[in-house]
Amino acid sequence: MGHYLRNRLLQAVVVILIIIVGNFILLNAVPGDLVDVLAGRGGDMDADLMASLRARFGLDDPLPIRLLDYIRNVLTGNLGYSWPHSQPVLDVVLQRLPATTLLVILSVITSVFIGTLTGVFAARKAHKLTDVILSMVVLVCYATPIFLTALALMLIFSVQLGWFPLSGLTTAGAEEGILATAADMGRHLVLPVVSLSLFYVAIYARLSRASMLQVLTQDYVRTARAKGVSERGVILGHALRNALLPVITMAGLQITELFGGAVLTETIFGLPGVGRLAYDAVFARNFPLLLGILIVCSFIIVIVNLLVDLLYMKLDPRVELTK
Amino acid sequence: MTLTRRQMLLSSLSTVALATLAGRPAWATIDPVGHEGGTLTFVISPSPQILTSAMTTAGAEQVVSAKISDSLFTYDFDMNIQPQLATSYDVSEDGKTVTFHLRQGVKWHDGTPFTSRDVAYTCMKVWKVLHGRGRTIFKDVTEVQTPDDHTAVFVMTAPSPGMLKSLAAQQTQLLPAHLYEGTDPMTNPYNLKPVGTGPFKFVSFVSGDNLVLEKNEDYWDAGKPHLDKLVFRFVSDPATVTAGLESGEFDLVNQSLLPKPDLPRLEASGKFDITTKGYEFQNEMQMIEFNLDDPVMSNPKVREALAYAIDKQWLVDNVFFGYGKVANTPLHYQLTQLYDETDVPRYDYDPMKAVKLLEEAGYKRGTLELTVDPLPYGEYQNMTANYLREAFRGIGVKLTVRNEDFAGFVKRVYTDRDFQFTVNLLTGGSDPTIGTHRTYWSKSFAKGVGFSNGSHYDSPEMDKILEAASAEMDEEKRIGLYHAFQKLAMTDLPVLPLVAVESVTVANKRVHNHTINAHGTYADFAEVWVDPKA
């Protein structure tokens, strides 16, 4: 186990190094740099100011030297400085991480829970009317683009009914206190989480339905029934545990995908998240910030993958962690 | 140079006029009649990255920071000077010394008194060094003398009438010297928790989400501001903005954030106050910049032909939904004192003439192929480029629209110079010396510098006019020089102005006084009040 962990962490370091070098080179091949964008936003800089800014931002050294400097800094825990924000990159990223983390974790939990429940229920009623109706609903959820769901939910529940706030993560300047803040964030997150979850509910429902149907035909299920285990016990204790494996795989993928893919939801609902920050950083050519986001996110992804592997082992004793 | 007696009289008159104004212009405002307090929610995009505009000209930074920090002046709708932290000023006979008399009893939000030291520090160490526009505006300033706490004397190598039109908080903001001196202004922590002299004090900032400001109880203009709290929300999705206005979650939206097709619906609902005023300090123009280094574009007949092929009114009506006016000169019509189209060559829509001109230039119908690069900022430049493709098809010119992202565009046009013409959006500013000059002045052509002289126009005659205008203290002579400028610019046609854009502010009807001068929603909001019942 310790051996396994050590190996995986070593792999992670190599992966992150590849991410840094690859992206560093790729990003610098893109036309235009931070100073071009800064000069362009106001439309009024002169050549001297641009040159002095390039020197300050360290953009005038040759690429290999900048890359080595950067790696050396990252190894000492320094992710660089985001000049437009007047702050270190790590601070900027950490300010934006909570919104995305909350959004991702809540929607993964919601979609796994509801999706699996729907799937199991549909599998129990396979090919009956309930199953057909559920399958149709699931298909609609699957086929609706997230931005459409988001706008529809927003128009109905915020604009028409006024039940939930339209955008943002907190009410600006609301009263302090952990409970009040949590409740406030909760209200702000309902619509984003629902719109992001609906698509994944569909995926988990289809996945767990298929998986459940397959598991239900296995010998050990028949054995369980034969020895008199209740239907509930068969489904939850025997079948579901095995049927969950593909769902867990998918959840692991979803978490990693969402860290980059929540841009749309973050934009529509005005959430101060990492996805939007990365998107803006690309257009601002703020590469230290972008690389910082990539590194932080790759750490998270490596850890999530590790957790998924461990969970696998827990659910299915046949899975062994070798090196 | 010396001033004539008339100008002396003018400048002394303005001193008197300013000195007699105790506080602010009262003519444009509606009294709050007991409506003190309340919160205003103002939605803008993108999220500002820092909270001062003393060293950046980005729009979001300007909007939010002008509520916290002041400058020397404000300007009314006709760009007349109004006092802010300077109560009056005098200009020396040779125009090279400007003395500002500063308001007394003003305190920074941390309680430290505001003095001439703050003015000297900000001008010499920040505006002149780090502010893109400031470097042009204050280039001739060699020293700011501080004979006493309430007098700041700007010593210059040449007279600069443009400077007096550019001293507003939206772009040349004063910073507290006691918190900035001896630090690197670009990394100073107070950029993110600003200390100003303005009507609102900083409370909290969540990048990408919101900024909260509260009433400054010790504001120098007693009895103001009226609002208790001012909340900025940063929302980048236009559909969310419209939805938020309709649900009442947002009170105020400015600039191009709103989708123009939504405006008629908002207007029809009767719940909103929609205005195009308050952008006199910006004056955006949609223009075509021809690359004169390109062999095809350097032919004046081709440029004229293309000019005749464009129905600018169509652009105003269909791309801008009526929020703009056909541009017949490079100056925005809102620069009322200088705009003049008498005897300026016109290029009214005439496709037959365009075809004829192209033939004279040696291009038979169907033989000319061109590429346009629309500025990727908002959607209007791309929409115009697509219209041009269809319009040019009518005169037998095949046009390809090339799309890139912002940084890519800037590099292609201003560094690589690998383009034929752009559809660009250029900010003229409060005075032609600020924005317009750099587009036409041969010495502002510099490879690698965004939004400089992109067409590489080089005319000694034009340089002479512009250089004379930037140092001319006599208003009437200045008007004459700019009239000559408008005629020459439209004769040589290095740049083809298309539309004088009107930006739009939409406010819930409960919001009052949001647009009372040339700064519009970029003003300090000391006068703004909300009606809690409406």
Task: Give the helix/strand layout.
The complex is a heterodimer of chains A (323) and B (534).
Chain A: H1 2-29, H2 34-42, H3 47-56, H4 63-75, E1 81-82, E2 87-88, H5 89-124, H6 129-143, H7 146-160, H8 178-216, H9 219-226, H10 231-261, H11 263-268, H12 274-284, H13 287-315
Antiparallel strand pairs in A: 1-2
Chain B: H1 5-20, E1 39-44, H2 59-65, E2 73-75, E3 81-83, E4 86-91, E5 97-102, H3 116-130, H4 134-137, E6 141-148, E7 151-156, H5 177-180, E8 200-206, E9 210-215, E10 229-234, H6 238-247, E11 252-253, H7 263-268, E12 272-275, E13 284-290, H8 300-308, H9 312-319, E14 324-326, H10 351-360, E15 368-374, H11 380-394, E16 397-401, H12 406-416, E17 421-427, H13 436-440, H14 460-471, H15 475-492, E18 495-501, E19 505-508, E20 511-512, E21 529-530
Parallel strand pairs in B: 1-10, 1-11, 15-16, 15-17
Antiparallel strand pairs in B: 2-3, 4-5, 5-7, 6-7, 8-9, 9-10, 11-19, 12-19, 13-17, 13-18, 14-18, 20-21
Helix pairs in contact in B: 8-10, 14-15
Keywords (chain B): Signal, Transport
GO molecular function, one term (chain B): peptide transmembrane transporter activity
Subcellular location (chain B): Periplasm
List keywords for this structure.
heterodimer; A: 323 residues; mainly alpha; MetI-like fold; two-stranded antiparallel ribbon; B: 534 residues; alpha+beta; Dipeptide-binding Protein, domain 3; 6-stranded mixed beta sheet; 21 strands; disordered N terminus; SBP_5_dom (chain B); peptide transmembrane transporter activity (chain B); TAT_signal (chain B)
